[in-house]
Amino acid sequence: MRVVTLVLIALLALVQYPLWWGNGGWLSVHDLEQQLIDQQRKNNESKARNDRLAGEVEDLQTGTAAIEERARFELGMVKNDEVFVQFVKPSQAAPSAPGPAVSGSTRGTVSSAPLSVVPEPPARGRARRESHRH
């Protein structure tokens, strides 16, 4: 009787081993499910990025507003009748003067003259109105 019990326990262990640790067992299924969740998250992030880029491409192909925005913010361009003014806080250092004149612009060359820094004007509006009430 004792031998039969030991043989049955050994057979049970042999049957259970592939179920838990074998190829396609519970542990490998859990690992695959985790990999699937990670891949779905990456796919969703990539889809959102692709949608954003597709919208940007459409804006660039159909209108001039997106092109103008890129020219202003990425290339620092201004229109012919505009004046570029940059406000800085008094605690910030003034931007350094650009180097020698740079060519390659479609509008001519950039001056190497030093920039004049205009301090930020005092805030108007609510703070000023509230001081008049008291």
TrEMBL record:
Residues 125-134 have a biased composition (Basic residues). It comes from the Bacteria. Residues 1-3 are cytoplasmic. One of its GO terms (cellular component) is cell division site. HAMAP family: FtsB. Part of a complex composed of FtsB, FtsL and FtsQ. Belongs to the FtsB family. PANTHER family: CELL DIVISION PROTEIN FTSB. This is Cell division protein FtsB. It comes from Chitinasiproducens palmae. The gene is ftsB.
